Amino acid sequence: MTEEKKKPGKKPKVPRQKMAEQKPEDRVKNFNEVPFGFTLEQAMIEAGRCLQCKKPKCIAGCPVNIDIPGFLKLIEEGKIIEAAWKIKEQNSLPAICGRVCPQETQCEELCVLSKREKPVSIGYLERYVADAEREKGEVKIPEKRPATGKKVAIVGSGPAGLTVAGEISKLGHEVNIFEALHESGGVLVYGIPEFRLPKAIVRAEVEYLKALGVKIERDVVVGLTVSIDDLFAQGFNAMFIGAGAGLPQFMNVPGEDLNGVYSANEFLTRNNLMRAYQFPNYDTPILRGKKVATIGGGNVAMDSARTALRLGAEKSYIVYRRSRTELPARLDEIEHAEQEGVEFNFLTLPVAVLGNEKGYVRGFICQRMELGEPDDSGRRRPVPIKGSEFEMPVDVVVVAIGNRPNPLIPKHTPGLATQKWGGIIADEATGKTSKDHIYAGGDIVTGAATVILAMGAGKNAAYAIHKELTGEDLAPKKPEVSAGDDE
């Protein structure tokens, strides 16, 4: 028998490392972060699984163009802090991305290893090195370009706005962020629960941007307390609008105005940003239902259903009109919800909310569904089954079926073109809007999407703004990788 000829760079098969986490029965009683993170040994083993492809597809799958093989090689060599610095050449928020980005459908999906085994845990490794840099006090502030004398205003301190701020500041421009809330971070602080993204992590990332020279003014509602034109009158040369999509959508069914019906936006904001789970230490009450139903199937729905358990719900339900196959939430979030005891009601549509004599929710009427032909989203369309209505007893309902942009800024900015559903129209490659010197990106352009896509849009806009202000084109080109390129 002849010895098998090895391909250049081929490594022995090593299983994907598993991150330790709190046990489900423990974590449903607290708001502490669920995963504990890799150990150094795990990180080095996992990074060593990377094949160091000559034409890495994973970079093509990253909206912010991180040199993924580069930072993985550094981890494999034990150069953990240097790996964090390598990531920060392209991404100013790695500790956040490592926790909440859907790597499984982006960089990891394109990992060559996924053809025959599980891909490299790129997201877990990004989290590991970012945490190590912060915990060891090795946060490195990159050298900035000389000051250009140009000023850029950023509306909103969510992932898109923070990304623009970091990139623009490094390029030598003066940056001011105007945030409507009393804390910086946008959806990162009001929308994502502590057990998935600790607020201390967000604050640390914000402090990093401040160290770059970014100025942040909070409690400034652009479009109300100050207009876009007012900001330009203050001497800003360009502006980026990254105000997100914070206007909740409802089902428009009878009884939706009863006490105990929350939008997921309000439910999570009360709990995350306003610390309702620590009432009365924080004076923000929230209804703690015994039977809580969350309508929807995305990450926000999973966050809401898992939060309800931690607030003391005996039963927490997901009510979703399609099947499990069509759930848009991340697989990790679905599995965590299932482990914690969230009960899933698939092919089920609420058609009316029922109330008691005091005006509080006592349940709702649902209808069974079946899947028909695919709709515009590519998922099979749910079709009602006649005569299948039934009553479901619950005392709190959380509606998590999506958000739209708040119309405040477009309404008070003449000439700013918007979509019919309220999103600002902006060029996909540059973020340029219909008004001169104004750029936009993130959820206010796309509607509710992922953190990393908002960051990618912010980075594109930052390069476009820099080109407008200086004439220099720094926009990177994505690596072109054909389907046949394996290594």
SSE topology:
Blueprint: E1 20-21, H1 24-27, E2 35-37, H2 40-47, H3 57-60, H4 68-76, H5 80-88, H6 94-100, H7 122-135, E3 151-155, H8 159-170, E4 174-178, H9 187-190, H10 199-211, E5 215-217, H11 228-233, E6 238-241, E7 247-248, E8 261-263, H12 264-272, E9 291-295, H13 299-310, E10 315-319, H14 331-340, E11 343-345, E12 348-355, E13 361-374, E14 380-384, E15 390-392, E16 396-399, E17 403-404, H15 408-411, E18 438-440, H16 443-446, H17 451-470
Parallel strand pairs: 3-4, 3-6, 4-5, 6-18, 8-16, 9-10, 9-16, 10-11
Antiparallel strand pairs: 1-2, 7-17, 12-13, 13-14, 13-15
Helix pairs in contact: 2-4, 2-7, 4-5, 5-7, 6-7, 8-17, 12-13, 13-14
How would you describe this structure to a colleague?
There is one protein chain. The chain has 487 residues and is of the alpha/beta class. It has three domains: 20-135, Orthogonal Bundle (Fumarate Reductase Iron-sulfur Protein, Chain B, domain 2), CATH 1.10.1060; 151-246 and 404-470, FAD/NAD(P)-binding domain (3-Layer(bba) Sandwich); 250-401, FAD/NAD(P)-binding domain (3-Layer(bba) Sandwich). The protein is 31% helix and 16% strand. The chain contains 17 helices and 18 strands. The strands form five sheets. The chain has a five-stranded parallel beta sheet, with helices on one face. A five-stranded parallel beta sheet has the order 8-16-9-10-11. Strands 12, 13, 14 and 15 form a four-stranded antiparallel beta sheet that branches. The chain is globular, with a radius of gyration of 23 Å. 47% of the residues are buried.
